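Q: Predict the assembly, please.
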Amino acid sequence: MEILVVNPNTTASMTARIGAAARDAAAPGTRILAVNPAMGPASIEGYYDEALAVPGLLEEITRREREAARAGTPLAGTVIACFDDVGLDAARCVARGPVVGICEAAMQTASLLGGSFGVVTTLQRSVPALERLAQRYGMAGRCRVRAAEVPVLALEDPTSGALERLRAEIARSLDEDGAESIVLGCAGMADLARALSQEFGVPVVDGVSAAVKLVEGLAALGLRTSKRGGYAHPLPKAYAGMLAGFAPV
Amino acid sequence: MEILVVNPNTTASMTARIGAAARDAAAPGTRILAVNPAMGPASIEGYYDEALAVPGLLEEITRREREAARAGTPLAGTVIACFDDVGLDAARCVARGPVVGICEAAMQTASLLGGSFGVVTTLQRSVPALERLAQRYGMAGRCRVRAAEVPVLALEDPTSGALERLRAEIARSLDEDGAESIVLGCAGMADLARALSQEFGVPVVDGVSAAVKLVEGLAALGLRTSKRGGYAHPLPKAYAGMLAGFAPV
Amino acid sequence: MEILVVNPNTTASMTARIGAAARDAAAPGTRILAVNPAMGPASIEGYYDEALAVPGLLEEITRREREAARAGTPLAGTVIACFDDVGLDAARCVARGPVVGICEAAMQTASLLGGSFGVVTTLQRSVPALERLAQRYGMAGRCRVRAAEVPVLALEDPTSGALERLRAEIARSLDEDGAESIVLGCAGMADLARALSQEFGVPVVDGVSAAVKLVEGLAALGLRTSKRGGYAHPLPKAYAGMLAGFAPV
Amino acid sequence: MEILVVNPNTTASMTARIGAAARDAAAPGTRILAVNPAMGPASIEGYYDEALAVPGLLEEITRREREAARAGTPLAGTVIACFDDVGLDAARCVARGPVVGICEAAMQTASLLGGSFGVVTTLQRSVPALERLAQRYGMAGRCRVRAAEVPVLALEDPTSGALERLRAEIARSLDEDGAESIVLGCAGMADLARALSQEFGVPVVDGVSAAVKLVEGLAALGLRTSKRGGYAHPLPKAYAGMLAGFAPV
Amino acid sequence: MEILVVNPNTTASMTARIGAAARDAAAPGTRILAVNPAMGPASIEGYYDEALAVPGLLEEITRREREAARAGTPLAGTVIACFDDVGLDAARCVARGPVVGICEAAMQTASLLGGSFGVVTTLQRSVPALERLAQRYGMAGRCRVRAAEVPVLALEDPTSGALERLRAEIARSLDEDGAESIVLGCAGMADLARALSQEFGVPVVDGVSAAVKLVEGLAALGLRTSKRGGYAHPLPKAYAGMLAGFAPV
Amino acid sequence: MEILVVNPNTTASMTARIGAAARDAAAPGTRILAVNPAMGPASIEGYYDEALAVPGLLEEITRREREAARAGTPLAGTVIACFDDVGLDAARCVARGPVVGICEAAMQTASLLGGSFGVVTTLQRSVPALERLAQRYGMAGRCRVRAAEVPVLALEDPTSGALERLRAEIARSLDEDGAESIVLGCAGMADLARALSQEFGVPVVDGVSAAVKLVEGLAALGLRTSKRGGYAHPLPKAYAGMLAGFAPV
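A: Predicted assembly structure:
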């Protein structure tokens, strides 16, 4: 099967690292198609970047699904590889296969491994959005979100001190909050999970890997988004201006 | 003061009706600037339409604020006139003045008038999104959302039977759910509140009017969105492609 | 329009300061009638004072509404100017116009300006009552209540050190709790909001001003308390003894 | 030991029936002092009656405690025998011994006997207040409140049809809501519990009896209200007017 | 009446101390039958011990109820004297009389004495189980659970330093968490409540005593577990192997 | 990899059907070891059966893990194939690999496919236990549990009418509760998911398949239960009597 992994920002080096993490996680028969939109923000740090990342994300999903279907190899499902689960609801309305966000994937996975968990993300400005996701996913009583005050793209720079700040916050999560496991709160941290797990002696969950496994599972069971209720296919209607091409048909 | 009221869909006739309702509600000294984006969906019915309405909405807010500031008459604040509170978080990050969504405005207002209330919206597919907003606003235990199965634009057509279906659902909300007041769950219903209130003998709250009053209040008190935390101004960064013009500076 | 602002304690100097804050907030066409009961506690610090403040409050509301109606200038609505929202439910049962408490007004207002907020009140003994209000208003997950350990009437004495203790607690709310804005948890702090907002660079919400704006808004829209359900007019019945005059008719 | 049972309304015949139910429930060594205030409403039906019942209730508790202490036989504790738990918080601030409301007593007791329970009260206007109590006591997810539309004092009149309406609502609670036991939602129903339990084959809990047993238990263990925090003794201060006699010393 | 108090671990010295605490709490006419199973763990420290304590507990309840019934002196009810409320649901399915766990008893009792309370238990590994019970009993918003890091059986050894660690954690609960009263989170602490209450000047609740009083109350009122729904008597069926004797008939 | 699937009841025919469903779901490289305990109840219908199923379940897990480890082919993880998630916490304390219950697996899976879902289980007496699991897993606001009143083992008898009753309840879940997908609430329904999904046109989730995929995913990522906190390995101690063999070492 082939799984689409969309990094909703436009930074290709980050897409490459996300793709590598996804491939590491994928089962032998799974191919990973890691992409990013041609339009939108270079990184997603807060609600505004989030909102403007969605059109590119949706276009990417629609186009890749159409191409794969034409090629006779329909996509098995989609991973949205931004920890804000950007555009998840809209994507579920239009995608043929199941769609999983890396925040929901990571939180669900952590909830199978211990009673409570800590989420360590990049910037304080992202914390409210993640707390709201935790509430939406029924996890608000089980986790506390902390920020390491590391800009997203600093994770790619070994001289930025980002890893040290991340490790300090993991330590506080375990010691002060009583977390039993850790969730890495940014797609850009995907490659760090294994080493941090060994260092701290607790499960450390990366959402990209977790989401790939969930999509593999859903696809193998033939499960797709319900088209009854909130995720029904969009009604056909006119869209105007620059976004006219997005009009549902 | 001048308040920007943005209808985030592109249907000008609906913008006109929303503008009229806003003007009806406005205080003597308040001017209403009712606009809609040049790009995006003709109506908002579900998560997909929601997501694609946001860029146009944000562009409209940014542009109108800039124009007003240049003219020396800065906007007092903004109302987002779609009951899904489309783009509310992103708008708060960039707008100078306070931003209020009509769903939050209507729910807050209803909560001041009675113990529990019913929300009557257009289509079943919109119910999950409104239930999630009710949870986010702390109102989930106080309201039940019902759909009249009326397409948004049918509200403009007197022969569509839309009003009858809406009235039937209000009656069920009062009789079966024990609602003490009613919230109209679509900006396109703004002009119906007064007549329905008289007919049913309970407060019927329209979000457009409610939001105009809240923005007037915030502006008069000099209160604006906190720039500490989740609504901090977006960090400057590159945006690519069709959306390059949205890049924060 | 004329708005009744009732300080439910009997300290006239505090009523004067509350009235001044209300007038500062009021729109050009709004008159403020600031009063306090002739009977009851000199300040409200805990559940016992709260309970005994209610009869005086209700008498004041009933009498002022009757007088205004007789004079042909019915009151537009009522603000209860004690942060415990003393007697709010009972007042809604008997008042003709809408009734708003300053705690609910301040919390609603703060929720429009940021994701989470801190409440800073006077005494630790008042904290449980405010936490319960936060739960009732659906705000428990968004705020933390702190006490500055300042007696209510000490706020009137510039030599009491009250302001310093209040400022220290605001600082802790921002730094330790991650609050994005601040709510002043006592009617006696109404005149401090603006200066504290400038000092700390975040919105600081005073409930008296917030409630005046909400009542102005409700009144302008013709919205009054629902008489269906919990706020129905009291059933006529005999009241005995000292309280016989309160019997509903 | 002697337990004070206060019916907070002024109807002596109802006090007599409450006293009888309390005596039925009391242990051999327990004396019941069943009283009602000299001032206040003849029955409690809604928030307004509630609020005006409190001064008489508090006066009764304070006076009876003082008399008993003078007589060298201090009261063991107090039951507030109105299902709205009227004045419970204020009473805890001033009473020497523990204070238990019959709503909290009945809900706690029912929660020991089954997973979910139904509450059947008198009038629809009382339902919102009881739902709020259920939330406060952590029972909102376990119960549903129904009204039999029976005025409180009709329970004393065998020709009123009140019992039939009550039984019909119990049946609906079991059949439609899946209740596993029943709570009688009015002190005036205290004498009906046993017969209804036999008729319906499920536990039927009366709050007066339940509260008497809880106070007996607390008193026997030497447990009293904590004086740390919200229930600290009221601070001494002046009270004005008709309520001057209530001033804490 | 006779109340069965089952210590679900197999340590007879702890059973003796629990029995003594129960007898101290019991009313003059109440006999306490304090027992422990012949099979299962010597102490209960975590989920695994919990699960393996249940068969012995159930056997003890069934056997003691049968013996008492045969002797013509049926048991009035049962206390499960482990703070994890081990086997409570299963016991309610088979016991004739009411069954109360000491955690639910202590939490209910504490909730009658103050607004919030602290729970101090033995080991960190038991904290998640107690937090889950607090959520189940509707008390999650009112308490915080702390561990003194004291093994259960160390409570029997005066040289272990256990008491000092317990007192330190009580102090933190009061000072840092704002607890208004304290719940002792282990049956082995039953004899410490009175002295700790005097030392700290707040109510300190022991679950064994609290549960004895609740069972006395339920029994006196003739209230037993509802047999409608989740606590219906087990359906007759075959049980295999070592546990064949547990098969319901 | 090899996954242990434990049916915690002793009915071998049901184990066979569960094993078949697990094998259908398993990836090419996954072997399924489907077993049931030698001791305990023939079916699990309510809390009592649940509790007595746990020792056999734990023995099976411990023995199978030990055997596999000795054979040099350690188990990848364990599925507990009873919808009550019987013994899940205890199993996590002792198992080497991850452990997943079929209720949590099914609910998590359903939450990825739609906004709300219906759970259809066997008997009304099992509903409270499943509602409590839904609350524990953060899903209480998203699902409603219904019982088809079908005994567990009747699912194996095509003449029992069980399937018809199950289908009727699914229809009610979709029509009356607005469910967007369906969860089958019993391991014995595992083979029905695909056909019911086609019939009703919505995703129908079987927990056995869902749990197999989750364990495959966790194992592939090297994730195991956290040993910090509630799932720490049991402390070594004596166990007495018939259960002596269960003592942790």
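The CA atoms of residues 1 and 182 of chain F lie 30 Å apart. The longest strand of chain F covers residues 2-6.
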